[in-house]
Amino acid sequence: MTRRTALMGAATALLTMLGTVPAGARGEWHKVGGDARSGVSGLAYEGPAAERAGVNALVVHDNKRSGQQRLSRITHGEDSSEITPITWDGAEPVDLEAVEAVPDMPGEYLALTSRGIVYRLKVTGATATVVDYSPLPAIGEGDDFESFAVVAQRGRLAVLWADRGAGTARPATLYAAPLTFASWGQPLFGAVTSKTYRAAYPADDGTRHISDISVTGSGRIIVGSATDAGDDGPFDSAVSDAGRVSVSVAGRVRVTLAASPAVLGKYPGYKVEAVECLPGSADAVLGTDDENLGGHVRTVPVCGT
Known about the structure:
Layout lengths: L2 H16 L11 E4 L8 E7 L6 E6 L10 E6 L4 E9 L6 E6 L6 E6 L3 E8 L2 E9 L9 E9 L2 E8 L8 E10 L5 E3 L3 E5 L9 E9 L4 E9 L6 E13 L5 E14 L5 E6 L6 E6 L5 E6 L5
Parallel strand pairs: 5-9
Antiparallel strand pairs: 1-21, 2-3, 3-4, 4-5, 6-7, 7-8, 8-9, 10-11, 11-12, 12-13, 12-14, 15-16, 16-17, 17-18, 19-20, 20-21
C-alpha cells in the first residue's frame, strides 16, 4: 500500500466515524491513463451512464502530434471508471486544454486549445465532427489557456476563460464575454471584460492560478488551481470558490471575484486540470493530468448550489 493510499483511507475512515461525510466525499481517485498522452486536460458532462450508476463525460487530451488521441469518453462511477477513444473528424487541434457542453444543444461542445482556438464539435456516438473554429477575442501577450466555461442565464449565453498565470509573479487573468453562433456554426464573442485572480492555495512559484473553471446553476465560479514541478511531479492542487457570474437579459456579463477565495478542497499529489460541476448536484467530477503518471478522475462535493 502506498503512503498516499494509506492517508486517503485513514481520512475517509475518520470522516465516516464522525458521520460528517457529504455525498460524494468518499469517492477515490480512479486511474484512467498511464502516461503523458492520456491525462485529463479538460472534462465536460455528457449525461448519465446508461448501463450502471454514474456519468458519461468527454475528456480532452493535450496531445500535439498528428494522429494522437484528442478526445475520449469516460464512464465514471463510484467504484470504477472506464475510458474509450472518440474519433476526431476535422481539422486537428494542437494542445487541447478544456471542453464544455453547449446548453440546450444536445451533442454540441466547445473545446479550447492553450493558444486560444475554440473548436465547435458535434459528437455522435464515438465520433466528434468539427463544425467550425475561431480564435478567442482579446488574447493577451503570453496568455496560456487551460480553462473554459459556458454560462446560460436568462436565455443568454456567455463564456469564461482564463490565462492560467504563473507563480507569484503572474496572477491568472479571467476573461468573460457574451457568446452567440453564426448561422454556419462559428462561435462569436461579444465585448470582453477581464479581472486578475490569485489562488489562495497552492501559492508557490509553480502555481497555475486557474487550471479550469466550472459555473454552478446559481452562478458560482468554481476554479481549480495546481502546481507543477515537472513531468514527474510533485504536484499539488485545490478547488476554490472564486466568486460569481451573472448574465443580464440584454446579454451583459458581470463577474465578481472573491477578495479571499474559499478553498473547498486540497489534493496533494495530483494536478487537477478539469473541474466539472454536475447539473442539479453538489458534486463535481475532477480530472487530473499528472504528466508521466497519467490521469485520474474523482467525484467531490464542492459545487453546492
